[in-house]
Amino acid sequence: MTIGPLDVSAAGIRALHAIYAHYHEQDAFPGLSDLRRALLASDDASDEAAAEELDRLSGRFVRKDHDRSGPIRLSVTGMYVAAGRCVELQDFIGLLRICQGRFKQNDAPRVIPAADVRKELGLDESREIRLQALVERWEFVLGPSGNDQQGWSWEVSDGIVDYRKVRTIEEFIEVYEARHPDRLETPYTYLPSAVDYLERTRPRPQPDHDSRRLELPFIRHANLRAIAERNYADLTALLTADGQLVAKVVLAGAIVEAILLDDIVDDGAIVPEQLLALPLGGLVKEARRAGAKVSQRVTKLADVAKDYRNLGHPGRELKEGQLSKEDADVATALMNALIAERRVLGHTRSQR
Fold it and tell me: What pLDDT is recorded for position 143?
């Protein structure tokens, strides 16, 4: 089988490379606006051209939210152009073969738990997170994904029948593009109708505190969970506002601390005083000693994050350097990375 012509400009290929590099190194696809700013901040003319090309990439290569506020994701074809037969696409084909096998076995369960995928493909934590991110929008092939106390899982879709003979990534791309030509034009994951557009843009009343709350069910310690969810709701209300740097750093840091403390202390137990004095990097080390899984990305972000407990002391801030937007970005990136890992992997310590 052969793949059709890959009509991508040099700037487009550079843009796809930039998306893949972030995904491969950070275990998550980059935000569209963040990636554009990073490319424009470079002194390299090719990076500037790539930034301008981000909005021109077709649905054959990328997927992004209609309002452009979310991440920009590579399609399988886009990842193939950016990185060839990379490890993530090898894992994707491996998962496809598992689905093919389950589909052919009438008596086999249609739901594939993460533990089975990890075992059969030999995935480490980082590869598992990247595989989850890659297949997130491919429900027509792999079916919906879910997450419970045992971790994430997939339900094999009936759409897998179209791919029952696929053995390579090139074969997958050819079959997919032949079956879904409509998906190759628009890069948007959501295309609203005119009525739906009007509904989405209609002014809505400000939600109350409870309705804004974003739940963090993977935190087992009830009191820590209540505090973290309250802070998460407050931070969510601030993220779209300019400024508010201290509040953003303090709230994000407190959420990270609650998650890490939950990794360390027993459910319902009093948090030891010595843990409260540790910086976030120290809490990461203690969480690992307690048996929690913490990625290298979270570890690195925790090491460079501003110590949010000191932000109430102007003298300390003057000594260590005034707070900047970059400090707030690091704190929220750390929080988002840790929450994303826990949502994918569930609680990573053994049952207490």
Answer: 58
